Amino acid sequence: MGDELKLVKYITEQVVTYIETPREERQHTEFKEPWSTKWFGMIPISLSLWRSNISREVPWEEQDPTLKEHMN
Fold this sequence. Notes:
Elements lengths: L1 H19 L2 H5 L7 H6 L2 H13 L4 H4 L1 H7 L1
C-alpha cells in the first residue's frame, strides 16, 4: 500500500510542477531529437552513413592503376 501512495505522490508533484511552469518555458527546448533516432536509436544514422559511403566508393581500378597492371 505504501508504494502506491509514493507513486501517487510523485505523479501529483510532477503534474503540479508542469502546471505551475509558464507555457513559454515548457515550449522552449534546447534540443529536439529526430523521431527516427528517438524510436530506433542509432540504426537510421548508421544506415544513412553506410549508404552514402557505398555511393562514394571508387572502383579498385580507378583507385590505383598499377593494381590493374599487376592483375594482367
